Structures are given as C-alpha cells and as structure tokens.
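Predict structure. Chain length: 337.
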Amino acid sequence: MSDENNKRITFEEFIKTDQKHISGVDNELTALLKEILLAGKSISSISGRAPISGLTGTDGSVNQHGDKVKKLDLIAEEEMVSALRRATSVCMAVSEETEEVIHLNSENGNYIVSFDPIDGSANIDTNLSTGTIFSISKRQSKIGGKPDEEEVLQTGDVQVVAGYFLYGPALVFCFTAGSGLHQFILDSDTGTFILVRENCKIPGHGTVYSINEGGVETFSAGVKNYIRYCQEGDPATGRPYLSRYCGAMVADIHRILLEGGIFIYPRTDEFPSGKVRMLYECNPMSFIIEEAGGMSVNGRKRIMEVEPDDIHQQSPIFIGSTQNVKTVLSFLENQDQ
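Prediction complete.
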C-alpha cells in the first residue's frame, strides 16, 4: 500500500484523494465505477452460492460464439446491465452474451461499456477461478442525439478505463484510467475495496507461459516452436518455463501480472482469426497490461491499434512481460511467413 503508516485506503478514498493517478476520472465516471464495483460484489456472492442455489450448469442455449451459455453467464450479465442503468451515464453497452448492442438510459449518456460478464465460465461447475472484464470508452458523437452504434467499434487506444474482477479466494479488483494500474481487494468484513497495490508493474521477464496446449497440432509453426523453446532447459534464461493454464483469461493474466510471463491464445485451424474477443477481452486486458509496463500484440501489431469491424470480433493475443512477448514475436516473424 502507498501509505507509509499502512493506513487502509478504500477505493472511495483513493478516487477522491489520489488524483495524480486518476486524471480524467470525473464525477460521472466515478459514479459509474462505483456501480460496477457493486455489480462485481454481487456476481461474486451469487457465484459463491451457485452450487447450493441450483445455478450451476447451462441454460440450454448457445451464444453467438457457439459457446454453451451457463446460467451464471446470464445472471452476471443482468447484474452488469442493472449497474450500468443505475449509473445513468452509459448510452450503450456490448456484452459477450448478447448479439446486438444494448441501448441504455437516455440519449445523454456519455459512456460506452463493453464487458464479459463471466470470463472462464467453463470453470463455474468445478469451483475454479472466474472473472469479469470491462472496458469504458467515451462517446464521440454529440450528446443529446441518438447514439450511433458504430461508435462501439473503436480501437483500444480510446478507452478511458479498463478493469477486471477476479473471483477467487479473495475478490480482486484491478483498474486503470490511463495513469497507472491499481489493485484492490474486498474486505468481506466491511464490504469495502481496499488498496493493496498502487502503480502495479509487471516484471520485464517471467518464467510462466499460459496456453491451452491441447490444440498444439493446429498452431502455426512459430507458436509450436516457441512452446518448444519454453520447454527447453537453459539456466541462463530460466528455462524450462512453468506451464500454467486455468481456463480463465483473467486468472491467468493476473498471475502473469504479478509473477511475469506470457499468456497466449493463437490462431488455430478451428479459429483462423483467433478466439479472444476484441472489445471486451483483448482491449481492456491490453490496456491494463500496457499500463503495468507490459506488451500485448495479435502476432503482427499492437492489439490496441487494431480497428474492429464487428462488436464480437475475435483475435489472437500474445500478452504479458515485454521480453517474453518480444521473444515470441521473433519466432512468429521468422517462421510464420
């Protein structure tokens, strides 16, 4: 914590007093973030009771990505949408679970929010970590007119805030407003989020690589050879690296944020354009990692420079410590031509 006397700094106190790290966060945005915090606490609580509340398993439907929809996916989406309605400053939202743009509140809403209500929902039934990812951007058109749905298709560089909740042994909240990355943990006794790490920095190099190796035969030559590189012994570079993959992007990247390393979700034969969603997964996590000093690319260019043409556009992603990302890029540049 930043205070020399170990004073417990709440999120509300941080927002009020630490303006040097949250430039651009106005009253509307502060109110919006507080509503999102309430949604995160609610989703965490509902998730914890899911096994005894009959909320595990699927609801029998499939979303636009072909994924089986979990009951908690829909409940978490409802919690997030309710939070955004309460904030009154959001004109539109994009959710992984809804095919079309969600129109909210009045035409005076100043912000657009994209979110993944439950990241790693396949982990729900086995009581493993999940999360929620969100991205906030500012509306570009004139306030008071009908919002233009094309405005949601912005590059990651226009984000004003990105953040995530990690639902694990502790409820973690990380966010950036473009002036550093800050981590909070929920104090369950008081119901308040407490600052635990200010201006988080990812190590420049790490010895963890996170990838679903089950589809390795469908990976490109460059990715295959990089995995072999990670598995080779070389004390000078700390190899072989540790393979860690839990099936929730939030959990895997949170580990890498703290310990260093790289998270990879490449193109495959089944998903030639990649699988991770640009607006509510790639962009916010890239903003977060870059603010911590790391890198995020799609294999060819910086993720946050990519112009999306669909609200559910998918992409490959290579994200984490700068040295690790640069190394994998050297494999891709030399072997994926």
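Summary: The helical segments are 11-17, 27-53, 71-87, 221-231, 249-259, 278-291, 322-335.
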